[in-house]
Amino acid sequence: MGIIKRIFLLIAGLGQILAIILLFINLKAAVIFYLINILLIVGVVIVLLIERIKEKEEDDRNDYRNY
After folding, report:
1. Cα 36 from chain centroid?
2. Which of 11, 34, 10 minimizes the C-alpha distance to 21?
3. What is the pLDDT, as a whole number, of residue 49?
4. d(CA 48, CA 32)
5. Which residues contact 30 (CB under 8 A, 6 or more apart)?
6. Which of 51, 8, 41 is nearest to 59 (CA)?
7. Are 20 and 13 spatial neighbours (Cβ–Cβ below 8 Å)?
8. What was the pLDDT predicted at 67?
């Protein structure tokens, strides 16, 4: 999961910079890049949620408080 999260974050960050540059060059391309960027950010949130759910399940399995 770590590599997927890093790739999404890297592409989302570079996409923001490219979209800002494209605002001055081509407005349609900038809007398309912003839409793709929103999808990437949603992807990052989904990956983080999945990671958190797996971490929570692992914590529940390794719960030794009743000893």
Report:
1. 12
2. 34
3. 92
4. 25
5. 19, 20, 22, 23
6. 51
7. no
8. 62
Residue 1 has pLDDT above 70, yes or no: no
Q: Do 5 and 48 contact (CB within 8 A), yes or no?
A: yes
The structure's pTM equals 0.68
List, for residues 31-48, the tens digit of each pLDDT value: 888 888 888 888 888 988
Whole-Å CA distances, 30 to 5, 8, 35, 46 = 24, 19, 9, 24
| Length of the chain measured in residues | 67
The count of other CB atoms within 10 Å of the CB of residue 15 is 19
Domain boundaries, the chain: 27-58
Instruction: Please state, in angstroms and rounded to a whole number, the distance separating the CA atoms of residues 33 and 50.
Output: 26
pLDDT higher than threshold 80 for residue 60: no
